[in-house]
UniProtKB/TrEMBL annotation:
Predominant location category: membrane
Organism: Devosia subaequoris
One Gene Ontology CC term in the entry: plasma membrane
Transmembrane segments: 31-48, 93-115, 136-160, 195-216, 223-239, 251-268
Protein name, UniProt field: Phosphonate transport system permease protein
Cellular compartment(s): Cell membrane
SUPFAM superfamilies assigned to the protein according to its UniProt record, in alphabetical order: MetI-like
PANTHER family reported for this sequence: PHOSPHONATES TRANSPORT SYSTEM PERMEASE PROTEIN
């Protein structure tokens, strides 16, 4: 049977060579794209001075740092690290919650089927795009300068950074709702508020909550980075330990962050699975 199948495949290849043999111009174009990609990659590595010797030296120093981190040890700062970890979680939670509350009406206003005015819709979407282009770390630096050091600056940075992303995601979810429940509410005599509350919101709420939970996971990691620039939390503790070369305590803080993020990820994944 295998011999018969092999013979049939060989016969098919002979009778349909165009399937297995690409035209010459397509092969040249593919090779040209690969060569261009490799040339750009080589130029980029040369531009940043990524020499093999530099990489080897960096790996040697990295191995030394890993050796200094073993064993991870909290020293006398276990309570301080635990408090800072809870502070980071609070920053991520409050920032995400504020972003959700502010973005909820913006999402409805940015949806074509809710606000059909083309000019208003276009302007609001471009407003979302403009602010989404600013990274959360930049917002943290701005708010640290504006309101001072501490977790309040981190909460504001997370909230402002996420509002525009939530607004765009919520608007897209609202635009893709099933129109049958909407038509049913209108046929029952409902006004626009009833349509939104009974026909649209029940459909998009699980999707919205899935986005919020996912961003909360991401914001826990982001809050760590924001702490390094002065926004408080566990990131500030980590930055201080690295600055004074206390690598054992730095390793302990990194393990705390990894365990916390893993726990939040597992809980959030189960909640999202139930919602959708």
């Amino acid at each position: 049977m295998n011999a018969t199948l092999t013979a049939d495949i060989a016969r098919f290849r002979r009778t349909n060579p165009q399937i297995f043999t690409r035209p010459l111009h397509e092969r040249l174009r593919t090779w040209g794209l690969w060569l261009a990609f490799l040339a750009i990659l080589a130029f980029g590595l040369w531009w940043i001075d990524a020499s093999p010797m530099r990489i080897v030296n960096g790996l040697n120093k990295l191995g030394l740092l890993v050796t200094l981190m073993i064993p991870p040890w909290p020293g006398d700062g276990l309570w301080d690290y635990t408090y800072a970890m809870f502070e980071t979680l609070a920053m991520a939670f409050l920032g995400t919650l504020i972003a959700f509350v502010v973005a909820l009406p913006l999402g409805f206003l940015g949806a074509k089927n809710i606000a059909p005015n083309w000019l208003f819709h276009f302007g609001l979407r471009r407003f979302f795009d403009a602010f989404r282009g600013i990274d959360g770390l930049v917002w943290a630096l701005i708010f640290v300068s504006a309101v001072g050091l501490g977790p309040f600056a981190g909460v504001l940075a997370i909230a402002v950074g996420d509002v525009m992303v939530f607004g765009k995601l919520f608007a897209e979810a609202i635009e893709n709702v099933d129109n049958k429940p909407v038509d049913g509410v209108r046929a029952s005599g409902g006004d626009n508020i009833h349509v939104v509350r009974l026909g649209v919101f029940p459909q998009v709420f699980p999707v919205m909550m899935s986005h919020v939970l996912y961003f909360f996971e991401s914001n826990v990691r982001s809050a760590t980075i924001l702490g390094i620039v002065g926004a408080g939390g566990i990131g500030l503790q980590l930055s201080d330990r690295i600055r004074i070369n206390n690598w054992q305590e730095a390793a302990f803080i990194i393990l705390m962050i990894l365990v916390t993020v893993a726990i939040i990820d597992a809980i959030s994944r189960r909640i999202r699975a139930r919602l959708i």
